[in-house]
Design a protein that fits this description.
The chain is of the alpha/beta class. Strands 3-2-4-1-5 form a five-stranded parallel sheet, sandwiched between helices. A five-stranded mixed sheet has the order 6-7-10-8-9, with helices on both faces. The mean pLDDT is 93. Pfam families: TP_methylase. Belongs to the precorrin methyltransferase family. Pathway: Cofactor biosynthesis; adenosylcobalamin biosynthesis. GO terms for molecular function: precorrin-4 C11-methyltransferase activity.
Amino acid sequence: MTVYFIGAGPGAADLITVRGARTLADCRVCLYAGSLVPRELLAECPPDARLVDTAHLDLDQITEELVRAHREGHDVARLHSGDPSVFSAVAEQMRRLDAAGVPYEVIPGVPAFAAAAAALKRELTVPTVGQTVILTRIAHRATAMPEGEDLATLGRSGALIVLHLAARYADRVVEELLPHYGADCPAAVVALASRPDELILRGTLADIADQVKAAGIIRTAVIIVGRTLGAEGFRDSHLYSPERDRHQC
C-alpha cells in the first residue's frame, strides 16, 4: 500500500489537480490539515473512508497514523495545502516513512504564490524587468533561517520576492527590503488566495505594512515585492517574436 502526499491547492476546492482528486477517491484513509484544506475536498474520498484531521497531531502521531493505515492494507491520502514542494513539512514525514519502510508518492498542487499571482493578474517574470523569483520566509519563533538566507541578504539581488508565513511581520519585511528596493517599489499582499473571502492589497513598500495592519491580516497570506508587479512598458519576449526562426528545434 502507498501513502500519497497530495497538494490540495491554495484554497479553492476545484484547484486540486485531476490526478490528486482521482487518487483521493481511491484512498480508504485520508489525513488532512483541517485548518487549511477545504472541507469540500473530503467529499472526493470514498463514503466509508477514515478521515483524520491532523491540526492537533504532532509528527509522531501523524507518522503512526500513516504507518498503521499502510500495515492495515490501505492506500493513504495525506492532503497538504498548496504544493508539497514548499513550506509543507513533507520532508520530515517522508524521512519517517523511509525509516519505516513505507512507500509513498508525491502529487503536486497549485502553490499559494501561483494563486496569488493569478489573483493579481500578473506574471512574476517579465522580460528585461525581472526573471528571478525568490520564495522565502522570515525567521521568528519557528525554525531559524539558514545562514545567508536572511531577508536583507536575499534582497541584495533585487529579484522579485514572495514571502510565505510573514504577514504578521510586515513591518520587518519592509524594514529589511527598503534599502535594496526603495520605498516606491511595488508590493502586494494576497490573503486566502482563490477562496471566496480572498483579499488583495496593492501598494508600495512605503505603505503596504500599514495596509496589512489596517486589514487585520496575520496569516494565510503571501507578500510579494518586486518591480515586475508594476511593469508596463517592457519588451515582448522572444518566444512569440516574428523574428524567431520557428523551423529550428
